């Protein structure tokens, strides 16, 4: 029987079936009825282990519903920080960031890493060569910056992420495009320069977009967080089921 990995972030749900460390079919949902969507996945096939990592605390009602859908349930949220401590992360770290770092440790063992996650927020986290978490930073993501300029100004329009940007904008729209995109690029390049010896990893919804614009040598791992959840789940299976 396969296992099901679920990651609920700030704006979307991502899920994937997995057999050990092998990720299978993946799903993405963006909407308010995340539980209903998740139950529609398990309606056809019940997972052996259901691992759910959430930026929000899982309510007792949701937990009760999920336990009926699987043989084993792993909840990773603000109320269940035991796995953060087990993998030597501080309790304030969100599980989506922690999962990505667990995967980075696995993929680049004994290498220092800088992990960028380009999503609703832009997070940058650091691991030393021994895999120890050295801390990280959070700033607004690309689309969040566009929305903030529109929301908190009286005259600026809402702009979408452009295919290309000018070095200097020559209109209101192109000025916003260049300001946001180049600002993120300069921010990213600054972090990379601080630790030139680190392996650089991009993940998240805008990872490929910014990777194509960078001159530095980087690795793009689109399902980094789900890989981390697979590692947590596989470890659980080996110790509690096999």
Compact summary:
This protein has 242 residues and is of the alpha/beta class.
Rounded average pLDDT: 93
CATH class of the largest domain: Alpha Beta
The tally of structural domains comes to: 2
The CATH superfamily of the largest domain turns out to be ATPase, nucleotide binding domain
What proportion strand?
A: 15-25%
Helix content percent band: 25-40%
**Class by alpha and beta content:** alpha/beta
Count of alpha/pi helices: 8
Given the C-alpha coordinates, what overall shape results? globular
- Placed side by side, the strands forming the largest sheet appear as 3-2-1-4-5
How many angstroms separate the termini?
A: 13 Å
Radius of gyration: 19 Å
Q: Give the biggest beta sheet.
A: 5 strands, mixed
CATH topology call of the largest domain: Nucleotidyltransferase, domain 5
DSSP summary, beta strand count: 10
Order of helices and strands: EEEHEHEHHEEEHHEHEH
Q: Low-confidence segments, ≥5 residues, pLDDT <50?
A: none
CATH architecture of the largest domain: 2-Layer Sandwich
